[in-house]
Specification:
Layout lengths: L9 H10 L4 H13 L2 H7 L4 H15 L4 E3 L4 E3 L1 H25 L6 E8 L1 H6 L1 H11 L2 E8 L5 H6 L5 E5 L8 E9 L1 E6 L4 H6 L10 E4 L4 H10 L7 E5 L3 H9 L5 E4 H6 L6 E3 L9 E8 L6 H12 L2
Parallel strand pairs: 3-4, 3-5, 8-9
Antiparallel strand pairs: 1-2, 5-12, 6-12, 7-10, 7-11
Helix pairs in contact: 2-5, 7-13
């Protein structure tokens, strides 16, 4: 089959939607892949096998008689035709979503699914109180909980991989998103309890901070707070590990690997909490503003609005 990047038209895409089995799920798979440009990542995050994902894309290309992605051993890129299909599918899914909203508003009880993203710690420190109340208000609603690194929260919502996220209010908050604060979270600099080289350094006076090993996140709000703290004290910190997830940072500190800055609630809830100690009282760092975030344009949706209102009432 000969593909053309330029022959696709609105009529062709409409015909494809009407006459082929491109269901909502396939449209979502295509849109996620068009954003990630990574077959393995889309397969993992959308819970499909790589072979199934490849068949979906191949079927779309065959039906539309265009090449949607240029693939080689190193990269995946959208073709010009793929970009047009991406624009169309975004509109298609948005219209479907609005239809679901209109139909749900005629129901006596709200139902449907909310994809909720948060850290493992937040899932049992702040989320239960919200979910307990929400279940009473919307007993037919389903919650799909996704856990991961706090630094990924806003991106999960922006990429439509989550409807709502528990996130820390960042220094630069996107204009197209809404935020509802639910708690202030202090930060603590923690160190191991066990005898180790890290404690040998910390026991010196003054502390030779440039020699102290640090465990840091790759990026995110904790990394930003650490940079503000260390600049007047440390010219170049000795970074021995970069970790995704605050929970894992506490574990590494407990093993004597180094020192880390973490949200206090993470250290307090950690199974390793008795094996770490606090180097600061928490007042040296501005606390995090933890809250719910979602796209502003979605706050009118009945189910999301109900969840948002429940969280607001618990503050």
């Amino acid at each position: 089959m000969i593909y053309s990047q330029y022959s696709i038209s609105l009529y062709a895409m409409q015909t494809f939607i009407a006459e082929t089995p491109m269901d909502i799920r396939n449209a979502q798979l295509f849109l996620h892949l068009a954003s990630s440009l990574n077959f393995a990542r889309t397969s993992e995050q959308m819970y499909v096998s790589p072979s199934t994902l490849s068949r979906v894309i191949q079927r779309m290309e065959e039906e539309l008689n265009v090449e949607l992605f240029q693939r080689d051993n190193r990269s995946v890129r959208l073709t010009l035709a793929g970009q047009k299909v991406q624009t169309f599918v975004k509109s298609y899914l948005e219209q479907w979503h609005q239809l679901q909203i209109a139909l749900s508003e005629t129901s006596a009880s709200l139902s449907g699914e909310i994809r909720l993203f948060c850290t493992v710690t937040a899932s049992f420190s702040h989320l239960p109180a919200i979910l307990d109340k929400f279940r009473l208000v919307c007993p037919l609603a389903e919650i799909k909980l996704i856990t991961g690194d706090a630094s990924a929260a806003l991106e999960k919502v922006k990429q439509d991989e989550a409807d709502i996220a528990l996130a820390v209010y960042p220094e630069h908050f996107p204009l197209n998103m809404a935020f509802r604060s639910i708690a202030k979270v202090p930060l603590q600099l923690i160190a191991p309890v066990i005898p180790c080289k890290t404690n040998d350094l910390l026991n010196q006076s003054p502390i030779p901070w440039e020699q102290v090993p640090f465990i840091l996140p790759e990026h995110g709000p904790v990394r930003s707070r650490f940079e503000l703290w260390r600049k007047p004290r440390i010219a170049e910190p000795k970074v021995v590990a970069k970790v995704e997830g605050h929970e894992a940072m506490v574990s590494m500190v407990a093993l004597g690997t180094g020192v880390a800055l973490v949200p206090a609630i993470v250290a307090q809830q950690s199974p390793a909490r008795d094996r770490v100690r606090y180097l600061t009282q928490g007042d040296e760092f501005a606390p995090f503003d933890l809250g719910l975030c979602t796209l502003s344009k979605r706050l009118h949706e009945p189910l999301l609005r109900a969840f948002w209102q429940v969280a607001s009432e618990l503050i």
